[in-house]
Amino acid sequence: MRFRPCIDIHNGKVKQIVGGSLTDEKCESKALSHSIIYGSTSDLSAVCNGSKCEKEALSHSDINGSTPDLSAVCNGSMSKAKENFVSEKGGEYYASLYKEDGLKGGHIILLNPAGTKEYELDMEQAEKALKEYPGGLQIGGGITDKNASAFLEAGASHVIVTSYVFQDGFIQYDNLKRISAETGKDKLVLDVSCRKRGEDYFIVTDRWQKFTREKLSFSLLKDLADYCDEFLIHGVDVEGKSAGIDRELIELLSEWQDSCITYAGGVSNFEDLESIRKSGKGNIDVTIGSSLSLFGGPLNYREVVEWFRQHS
C-alpha cells in the first residue's frame, strides 16, 4: 500500500475540486440563442469555445452595431467546478516535494478539455512538474495515441487514459490496442473512475461528466489488464468532499489482486486509510487530495507520508 500524491490542474492552477461538480460550457447549446439574437444560423461550434459567448457577443454588438465576429470575441472554454482549494504555487513546487520524499507514481490530471486555451495553461503547469520530477509522475487528461509519446518524452512515467478508450458508452478496443501499442503496456494506466447508478458502479468519462454503459467489475478489470500496467479509480461520488471513502467501492476493488490499483476519493482521516488497508489487504494504493494539508485540509502531509512508510 503506497501513497500516490496528486497534482490536479484546472484553468492553469493547481487546485482541488469536488469531482462531481466539474462541468464544461458547450457553445453548441448557445447557437440557437445567438441565431435568435442576430438572425443568423452560423455554426458557432466552429468559432466559439467559451462560456461567456452570449454576454461578450451581445456587448460587442451593442458597441459596434453589427453582428460580431464570434471568433474575435470568444476565446476560451472555461469549465466550471466547485473549488475546495486553489494554490498559489505551481506544479513544480509539488513535484519537487514529492521527489524529495521519494513518492513515485503520483499523478498529474489536466482537468480542462483538450484543444482549449485553458488546457494549454494546464499543460504549462504540467510540463514544469514533469521537468522537476522526470520519471516520477503519471499524467492524464486529453491523451490519445497521437500525443501519448510526447508526454512520455516530456518526463511522465505513464500516461493515464479514459475518454480515448471509453467512447460512445463502451470500450473501444481498437483505440485501446492502438494506444497500448504506442506506449507499451508498461507505460499505460487506465482510469476507470466511476459513479454509482442503481446498485452498480459505471465508468464515467469526459472529466467524470458522462456515464458509460460499462459496469465496473472483476471481469472488466481482467479484460483491460491485458493492455495496461495499472488502474486509477476515483470514487467520483465522494471525490473532493472529504466526507469519507466509498466503502462499497473499496470492497469491490479488494477482489482485484493481479495489478496495481490506485484509489482516490473522500479520504478524510487515518481511520479511512486503515479501512482501505484492511479491506484491500494492503494491495490498494491511495491518493489524498482535498483533505491533505498541502491543499488546505486537516491531514498533515508529513504525518501521512510517515503513516504510509510504516504500513508499506
UniProtKB/TrEMBL annotation:
GO terms for molecular function: 1-(5-phosphoribosyl)-5-[(5-phosphoribosylamino)methylideneamino]imidazole-4-carboxamide isomerase activity. One of its GO terms (biological process) is L-histidine biosynthetic process. Keywords: Amino-acid biosynthesis, Histidine biosynthesis, Isomerase. Gene3D superfamilies: Aldolase class I. It holds the Pfam family His_biosynth. Pathway: Amino-acid biosynthesis. GO terms for cellular component: cytoplasm. The keyword Isomerase applies. InterPro entries: Aldolase_TIM, His6/HISN3, His_biosynth, Isoase_HisA-like, RibuloseP-bd_barrel. The keyword Nucleus does not apply. Belongs to the HisA/HisF family. This is 1-(5-phosphoribosyl)-5-[(5-phosphoribosylamino)methylideneamino] imidazole-4-carboxamide isomerase. It comes from Anaerocolumna jejuensis DSM 15929. The lineage of its organism: Bacteria, Bacillati, Bacillota, Clostridia, Lachnospirales.
